[in-house]
Amino acid sequence: MTAAVPTDSAAVEVRGLVKRYDKVEALRGVDLTVRRGEMFALLGPNGAGKTTLFSILATLRAPTAGTARVLGHDVVTDRDAVRRSMGIVFQEPAIEQRLTGRDNLLLMGLFYGLGSAAARQRAAELLKQLDLADAADRPAKNLSGGQRRKLELARALVTDPQILFLDEATVGLDVDARRGFWAQVRGLAATGRTVFFTTHYMEEAEVADRIALIDHGQIVALDTPQALKTRVGGGVIRLQTEDNARARGWLTEHGLAPEAGGQEIMLVHADPAAVLPELLRTLPVKVQRVEVHEPSLEDVFLKLTGRGFDGETPVPAGRPGGRNGGAA
Amino acid sequence: MIRGIYAVVVLDLKRFWLDRARLVAGLAQPLLYLFVLGAGIGANSQLGGGDYKRYIFPGVLGLSLLFTATFAAITIVFDRQIGFFKAVLIAPVPRASIAFGKIIAGALQAFVQGVVVLPFAPLAGVHLGVGETFGLLCTMLLASLTFSAIGLAFAARFSSTTVFPIVSNAVILPMFFLSGALYPLVTAPHWMQLAAHFDPVAYAVDLMRGALLGKFFFNPYLSLAALVAVIAVLAWDSVRVFNRGEDDSSLGATKFNWRR
User: What is the domain extent for residue A218?
Assistant: First the structure.
């Protein structure tokens, strides 16, 4: 899944991208480079600007300022070249529900300029490649959610694109269907295609080579999943004691800073394994349960922005904006 | 460009085929006008019952074409809501071919609906010889294209499926009533004759009636020129509206965006 196609231009190159709607600034100067052959995830809460960024890359909206290139083609001046070279799966359905899977793919082939015979052949290939034989001759509306999403994926693959955009492509699917979908995507990535995706499911983001965190229309961090997690500070210790209040007090006195609130005590530390034995021995309160885990991507986001993905924790004073939701 | 038009036409005709039962249901309206309204009004008409039905037959055909074409145009409004067109909009298809494809597809659907009415011609006392049939089919095709262009020019500006039919009725019905489809324009009040000169439906119906009965109200060349001009202007207008959609992913429907 590492860069397989050596080439001079990046898969996606975004510089100083700004998108302003009437009053809302959805993107406030985004810089981003996705390498060829990379699995790249874009994470952030609703309204952070993910869908706006994808719409611009997919040539559906024009940026207010800045530039964006897909496989070296400018999304404004070289629109048709971008359209020809990418495939995209939207959050909402973009297939004709009353037509069969085969007809949907056939039509997309026609829209991409294939002749009737070539479009027919391409549709048959894709149905086979994505295990959609059952969906071929049934109207899309009669398919299961998982099959419909796969059909969306097949639609995005009609032109055999070198880059694939997935905008929360698996939202609302059950675990099995999501696994099936991602197995297909990983297969595509393994053949050297670039996959640029957003998701709400953290475990899906774990498969990315690199992750960008976006908040209030700006990239707040960009790194490998592992490197992002080490930014939190190593590990998270969770303690359940007989007297949490007393334990908190003691921990604070001893220079450890437990996070405020919660049923349990949460403690972020650079090296939990080194500090934990000593801690358990000297803590004057009986510990009922202890848990050590790697920081999750959500912990990373919390640490970097002071808010969770759900946006429930209020924005601390001093952070710019405070506008949340609205522009997606 | 041509391939894009072809793709839009194939898409719409495939969907039309799924709804082919509508062809039969679509017969109800023209037949009602022809044999109920026609019989009722015809009995009191100076033309006499039989002659009146014969007279309004082309007008009723026009009605059928007009309503089918307008309804076909609504699909563009549906497409925006369901999202299939999002996939089309990111395909390398010029917006112009979407507009032209929509006009052609709508016209073909209207034409087919009109053809389904033709077998009832003898019952209305209309004789369909080879010459008349040929002339009628040609004028029907031209009328279908005109009505489809009218429908699209409206539909292209709407993103709501609830508002569009109301607005279109407020425009389509007056155009139909002023067209002389159900009465001779010659004996109509002066202001109606005048209004008919600004009504594309009047030219279309007059051409069809002329092809069928050999009598024209307008100079047929004027009618031809008027219809071709209407198609050209409205097609250009739709292309313009669709191109505006290049930046807002809505295929241009920004002006009457009441529901968003």
Answer: 12-224
